[in-house]
Design the sequence.
C-alpha cells in the first residue's frame, strides 16, 4: 500500500495476514481496506484523541508489496488508465472501498503506448475501488466457446492469425512459452492442472482442493459432509448436535454424545475434523465473498461466546461452550462480524476484546496472540493506526511466553516487518528503515530448516528493495529484489502443502514461499514499469504465471498484469490477452479470482 510523500507522514498499521501490493509515488495515497489515508496536515487520533505523527523527509514511495492480514487477502493494484471508477484487485474478504490517488505514469511509457488505449489524466486522478462488487465464480461468458476451424483453414499453409485462433489454442501457446519451469527445471509446460488423486474422499479431498484454491468445490464438499447424514453420518450427527442441541452441551459442559459406537471409532478425531471442516467452509465463503451465507452460518452457531454474552452485565460465562470446541471458532465468528453486520467494526471489536479478557484470565497466551492479530486487522481496516500498532506491540510482549530461540526471533522479525511496512506505506521511510534493520542485528542458525527461519534473509533483501523503491531508486531496488528472488529459488523445495493450523489456529503468519514470491516479482515488475521497460514488466509477471498458475496467479497479479496489457497494447490485443489469462485461471479452478480482476468489459 502506498501513502503520500510528506514531511509529516502518519503512522499506519498492517492487517495481520494479507498479501498486498501498493504503488507509491508523488501525490499518491492508498487506503488499506477502505477509504484514503489522511492528508499530510491531518491528525490521526485513537482512543483518547492523542494524535500521533512521525516526521519523515524521505522522497515519495514508489511501490510497496507486503503481507498484512491473515487469513484474508487484499491488494491495491496498478493505476487505471481507462476510467476514473473501476474495480481493482479486491480483497478475498473485505467488502469496503478504497480511494487511490494515482501518480503519473512515466512519460516514456506513455510515448510507447498506443494513444487509443490511454486517457489523459492528471496526478490527482482518483480511482475508487469497490471491493463489495467482487464476483463469486469466474465469468465463463467472458471466455466463450472454442470456434472450430474450417477445412479450408486447416489446409492453408499460411500462418494462422492470432485473431482467428481459438482461446484454447492461444492459452496453450501462452503456457508453452519459455519460462523458469521449462528452461531451468527442464519440465514440460504446465498446460492444465494435474488430476485430483482418485483414491481421495472426504476431508482429504477438501484439503487437496484448498491447496488448489478451488474454493467453490471446497464449499460444496464441506456442505455435504456436515449436513448430509445419509452419506456422512459420523460428521453430520456431530455437527447437528453441536449446532441445534448446544444448550444441552452448555448445561453439562460435555462433548455431544456419538451417534453410535459402531459409527465412531475415535470420537476426538471426528470432533477435530468437524471443527476443521467448519473452519474451511467459512474461509470458502470469505474467499468467494459470500458474506450473507457466512453470516447465516455463524448465526446458527448457538454455542459461540457472543451468544452467551449478557448485555446487562459485563460478566461473561466462559465455561458454557463445549470444551472440545476450540477458541479459534469463536475468534473466526467475531471476525466475521466486520463483514456481516451493519455496525460491523464496533460489534467485532467488542467481541474480540471480550474474548481477550477471557484469555487473559486463563493465561491462554497462544489465543491472546491470535486475538491481538485480529484486532490489528480490524483497526487497520477502520484506519485507527495507533491502536493497530498498539496491538502489534502487545504481540511482541507476549511472544516470549509462547516461543523461544530461533522461533521467537522469527515471529519477532515478522512483526517488525509489518510495522516497518506500515511506516513505509504512510511515507515514514527513515523510521521504516530503522525497524527493518532490527532483523539484521541477530544471527540465526543456518541449520534450522523451518520456513519461518529460512524466509528472514529473503525479507531483509525485500525490505531493502522497498526502501530503494520508496526513494525512487528503481535500479537499486531491482538489484535487491533479484537477490530476494535467488534466495526464494533456493527454497523452492519448500513447497506449500495444506496445514490445518493455518485455518484452525491459533498459529498465524505461516505464509508459503510461493506467496512471498508473488510479492517479490510483482514489485520487480513495477520497478521495470517505472524505468520505462514495459516489456520486462510484462514478461516478469507472465513467466510467473506460466511456471505455476495455482501458486502465483493471484488476484493482485492478475489485475496488475491486465493493466500492463492495457498500457502496452492496442485495445483488441489487450482484450485478447486478458481473455487468455482469464481462461488460464478457469482451467486451473482458481475460484478466488473474480472476473473483475481481468478488466474485461
Sequence:
Amino acid at each position: 500500500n502506498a501513502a503520500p510523500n510528506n514531511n509529516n507522514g502518519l503512522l499506519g498499521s498492517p492487517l495481520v495476514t494479507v498479501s498486498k501490493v501498493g504503488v507509491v509515488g508523488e501525490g499518491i495515497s492508498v487506503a488499506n481496506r477502505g477509504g484514503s489515508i489522511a492528508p499530510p496536515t491531518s491528525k490521526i487520533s485513537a482512543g483518547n484523541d492523542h494524535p500521533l505523527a512521525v516526521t519523515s523527509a524521505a522522497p515519495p514511495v514508489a511501490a510497496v508489496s507486503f503481507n498484512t492480514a491473515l487469513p484474508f487477502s487484499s491488494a491495491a493494484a496498478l493505476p487505471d488508465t481507462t476510467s476514473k471508477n473501476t474495480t481493482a484487485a479486491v480483497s478475498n474478504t473485505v467488502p469496503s472501498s478504497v480511494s487511490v490517488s494515482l501518480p503519473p505514469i512515466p512519460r516514456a511509457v506513455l510515448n510507447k503506448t498506443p494513444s487509443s488505449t490511454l486517457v489523459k489524466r492528471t496526478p490527482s486522478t482518483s480511482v475508487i475501488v469497490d471491493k463489495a462488487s467482487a464476483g463469486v465464480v469466474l465469468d465463463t461468458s467472458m471466455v466463450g466457446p472454442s470456434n472450430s476451424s474450417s477445412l479450408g483453414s486447416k489446409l492453408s499453409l499460411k500462418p494462422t492469425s492470432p485473431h482467428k485462433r481459438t482461446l484454447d489454442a492461444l492459452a496453450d501457446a501462452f503456457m508453452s512459452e519459455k519460462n523458469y519451469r521449462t528452461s531451468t527445471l527442464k519440465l514440460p509446460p504446465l498446460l492444465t492442472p494435474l488430476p485430483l488423486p482418485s483414491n481421495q474422499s472426504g476431508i482429504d479431498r477438501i484439503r487437496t482442493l484448498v491447496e488448489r484454491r478451488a474454493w467453490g468445490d471446497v464449499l460444496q464438499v464441506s456442505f455435504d459432509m456436515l449436513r448430509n447424514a445419509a452419506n456422512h453420518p459420523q460428521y453430520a450427527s456431530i455437527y447437528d448436535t453441536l449446532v441445534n442441541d448446544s444448550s444441552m452441551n452448555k448445561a453439562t459442559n460435555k462433548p455431544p454424545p456419538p451417534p453410535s459406537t459402531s459409527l465412531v471409532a475415535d470420537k476426538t478425531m471426528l470432533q477435530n475434523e468437524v471443527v476443521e471442516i467448519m473452519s474451511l467452509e467459512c474461509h470458502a465463503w470469505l474467499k468467494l465473498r459470500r458474506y450473507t451465507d457466512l453470516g447465516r452460518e455463524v448465526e446458527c452457531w448457538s454455542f459461540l461466546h457472543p451468544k452467551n454474552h449478557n448485555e446487562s452485565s459485563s460478566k461473561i460465562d466462559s465455561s458454557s461452550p463445549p470444551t472440545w470446541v476450540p477458541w479459534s471458532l469463536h475468534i473466526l465468528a467475531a471476525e466475521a462480524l466486520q463483514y456481516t453486520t451493519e455496525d460491523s467494526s464496533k460489534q467485532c471489536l467488542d467481541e474480540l476484546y471480550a474474548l481477550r479478557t477471557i484469555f487473559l484470565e486463563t493465561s491462554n497466551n497462544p489465543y491472546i496472540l491470535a486475538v491481538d492479530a485480529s484486532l490489528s486487522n480490524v483497526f487497520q481496516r477502520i484506519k485507527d493506526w495507533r491502536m493497530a500498532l498498539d496491538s502489534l506491540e502487545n504481540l511482541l510482549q507476549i511472544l516470549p511466553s509462547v516461543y523461544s530461540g530461533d522461533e521467537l526471533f522469527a515471529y519477532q522479525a515478522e512483526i517488525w516487518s509489518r510495522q516497518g511496512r506500515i511506516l513505509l506505506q504512510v511515507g515514514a521511510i527513515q523510521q521504516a528503515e530503522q525497524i527493518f534493520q532490527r532483523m539484521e542485528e541477530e544471527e540465526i542458525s543456518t541449520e534450522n530448516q523451518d520456513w519461518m527461519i529460512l524466509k528472514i534473509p529473503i525479507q531483509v533483501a525485500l525490505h531493502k528493495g522497498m526502501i530503494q523503491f520508496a526513494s525512487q531508486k528503481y535500479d537499486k531496488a531491482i538489484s535487491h529484489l533479484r537477490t530476494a528472488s535467488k534466495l526464494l529459488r533456493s527454497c523452492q523445495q519448500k513447497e506449500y502443502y495444506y496445514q490445518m493450523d493455518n485455518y484452525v489456529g491459533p498459529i498465524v503468519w505461516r505464509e508459503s514461499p510461493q506467496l512471498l514470491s508473488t510479492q517479490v516479482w510483482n514489485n520487480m515488475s513495477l520497478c521495470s514499469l517505472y524505468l520505462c521497460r514495459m516489456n520486462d514488466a510484462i514478461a516478469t509477471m507472465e513467466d510467473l504465471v506460466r511456471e505455476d498458475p495455482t501458486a502465483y496467479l493471484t488476484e493482485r497479479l492478475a489485475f496488475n498484469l491486465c493493466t500492463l496489457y492495457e498500457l502496452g497494447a492496442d485495445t483488441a490485443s489487450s482484450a485478447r490477452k486478458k481473455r487468455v489469462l482469464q481462461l488460464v485461471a478457469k482451467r486451473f479452478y482458481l475460484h478466488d479470482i473474480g472476473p473483475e480482476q481481468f478488466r474485461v468489459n
About this structure: Confidence is low (pLDDT under 50) at residues 1-102, 109-158, 246-254, 306-319. Residues 176 and 517 are 21 Å apart (CA to CA). The beta strands are 19-23, 29-30, 45-46, 50-51, 63-67, 97-101, 126-130. The chain is about 50% helix and 5% strand.
